[in-house]
């Protein structure tokens, strides 16, 4: 069995959105373990939330598979520069673009930057997300509810809409959903609701884009050890994070990378409208 960390973890809390360097134990993004085989040679990818967590693992994997990458992120500059270093060490081009994608103008700027700096878009990974936990619906402010939808689902629509006109047949869109779209955590009500919307959006989008030769799929992670966890969950939940799934531990970001590579691989040309569950053995229906 792989020797990935298991709870209990040290007590820890960070301000949102969290930083990789402060996490104990450190997440594994595949820095030393992911080996590419040219599956994405010459491809151009946009990854939102690409500075850390799942996004960093996908950026590393894509670069080592031969793709150039634009990394969209909020303001975690230190994390973003580390991801940039890992991409360029793989011999691929990395473009960093900070900014808040809850606005349609920033989403269009992300796509425009990718087209001008990378020369096009073959893969769009809609991965950035906002979450916060609340014990009561009365604790969720209107502003918090709206922010969660703007970042998690509205941005996905804006980015996809802007990218489509630059995508050729054979291109693909990969959306990060969650096990929460199937088994919602009640303390993550706003987040879980957006993840359900992403699942539905992906299924409809796949049908809508099929005649253009563009595929749309989703990955549904279970508990994954990223900066989002110590910055958005109560300390007790962080300490025991991942204990509830059959593998009794959280997944590491690197453990999702192969799902994103498979969905982006041109050889997966008949895979569209699918959701790949990466949940540590917990059923996803």
TrEMBL record:
Keyword Phosphoprotein: no
Key words of the record: Oxidoreductase
Region annotated Disordered, chain positions: 1-42
Superkingdom per UniProt: Bacteria
MF GO annotations: oxidoreductase activity, acting on CH-OH group of donors
Pro residues bias: start-end ranges: 1-10
Listed Pfam families: adh_short_C2
PANTHER family hit by this protein: NADPH-DEPENDENT ALDEHYDE REDUCTASE 1, CHLOROPLASTIC, NADPH-DEPENDENT ALDEHYDE REDUCTASE-LIKE PROTEIN, CHLOROPLASTIC-RELATED
The family this protein is said to belong to: Belongs to the short-chain dehydrogenases/reductases (SDR) family.
Protein name: Dehydrogenase
Lineage: Bacteria, Pseudomonadati, Pseudomonadota, Alphaproteobacteria, Hyphomicrobiales
